[in-house]
Write a sequence for this structure.
């Protein structure tokens, strides 16, 4: 791809969680320093200047299935000397390898949407692309290069570019990054953290004696260790209780935290998503008379967007139902642990899958809000509605 793709050009300013516009934040920091008459900022996101001119984009790879898409598999068996074909319905979830992290370097860092070059961060030729496009030599032996490579790895290993996930991952890893790169207020970050820690708390009852003298202190320490998911020796009692493979424990605990984060997102965004659904069903019509053929074309586009939106909404709710049924059965009702253990074992896939759906929903809603905020009763002219539906069809995927 030699230029920014159309959906990125049209959604750079939407605030979507699929886009991390490092170039724009860097430009604002440099402009503020210059306006104050001072020196350029001492610290930016990356050590290497070229990487601070990048835009990072998460998007499904072309071969990736829709989240939890139904898949018909066929096979043949030999029965009484005859070949018989049968089909099996199964489910295909979005996994880590289905989401691409694209690095886009604009030609003009002051005009990000005016074209540039890009490459996939996990692509086979990424080392050469980093050098050719960003001027970053990943083979150099220096602390600054190793630091930037680690940060690129953290970005690549996230299912979306939500500010909370970025800030949390960088903080847990102990990296020093200017707060301006995380467009999330500290109060909101702490609210989300408190929500997740509350979900973690019942698990400590499995390993901490509530009657011990320092039970409260040990409980808090255990919860924070679970939050960081790094000190796996300390967490070994939980790993053993839930029969988790020790080699996968860190990923499982982080994924559990990630699914809980998206539960928070899902609950918080329900009213806005319902508003978008209502618009699709009642107000996604031209505000003025149009000819029948154009009206039919717009109605078909609305149906396609609504179907994609409904699929992502159902996928998100299905995953959260699996999570909460297992969680409540064990920690609220005191029932068997098997459903929750099964959730934990699949938590990494659930994390990437729900991230794909929630990101698609948020992306679509962000674009819709941006395009209809000044429209009377949310209705647009046909000339405004048609391109909006085209964009929604490309981003709600």
């Amino acid at each position: 791809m030699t230029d920014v793709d159309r959906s990125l050009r049209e959604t750079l300013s939407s605030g979507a969680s699929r886009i991390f516009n490092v170039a724009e934040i860097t430009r604002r920091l440099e402009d503020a320093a210059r306006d104050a008459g001072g020196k350029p900022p001492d610290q930016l996101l990356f050590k290497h200047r070229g990487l601070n001119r990048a835009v990072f984009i998460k998007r499904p790879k072309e071969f990736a299935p829709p989240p939890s898409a139904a898949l018909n598999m066929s096979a043949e068996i030999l029965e009484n000397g005859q070949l018989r074909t049968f089909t099996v319905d199964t489910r295909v979830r979005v996994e880590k390898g289905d989401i691409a992290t694209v690095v886009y370097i604009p030609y003009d860092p002051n005009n990000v949407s005016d074209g540039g070059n890009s490459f996939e961060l996990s692509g086979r030729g990424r080392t050469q692309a980093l050098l050719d496009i960003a001027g970053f030599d990943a083979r150099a032996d220096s602390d600054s290069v190793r630091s930037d490579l680690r940060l690129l790895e953290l970005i690549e290993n996230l299912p979306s570019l939500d500010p909370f996930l970025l800030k949390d991952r960088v903080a847990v890893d102990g990296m020093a990054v200017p707060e301006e790169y995380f467009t999330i207020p500290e109060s909101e970050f702490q609210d989300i953290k408190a929500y997740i820690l509350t979900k973690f708390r019942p698990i400590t009852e499995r390993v901490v004696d509530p009657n011990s003298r320092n039970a409260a202190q040990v409980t808090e320490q255990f919860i924070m260790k679970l939050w960081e998911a790094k000190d796996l020796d300390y967490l070994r009692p939980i790993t053993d209780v839930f029969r988790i493979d020790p080699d996968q424990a860190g990923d499982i605990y982080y994924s559990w935290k990630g699914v809980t984060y998206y539960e928070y997102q899902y609950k918080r965004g329900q009213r806005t998503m319902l508003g978008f659904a209502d618009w699709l069903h009642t107000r996604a019509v031209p505000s003025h008379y149009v000819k029948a053929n154009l009206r039919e074309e717009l109605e078909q586009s609305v149906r396609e967007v609504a179907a994609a939106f409904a699929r992502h909404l159902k996928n998100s709710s299905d995953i959260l139902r699996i999570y909460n049924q297992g969680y409540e059965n064990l920690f609220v009702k005191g029932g068997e642990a098997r459903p929750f253990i099964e959730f934990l074992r699949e938590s990494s896939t659930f994390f990437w899958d729900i991230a794909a759906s929630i990101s698609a929903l948020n992306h679509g809603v962000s674009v819709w809000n941006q395009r209809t905020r000044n429209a009377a009763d949310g209705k647009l002219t046909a000339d405004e509605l048609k391109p909006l539906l085209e964009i929604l069809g490309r981003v709600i995927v």
In short: The CA atoms of residues 78 and 199 lie 51 Å apart.
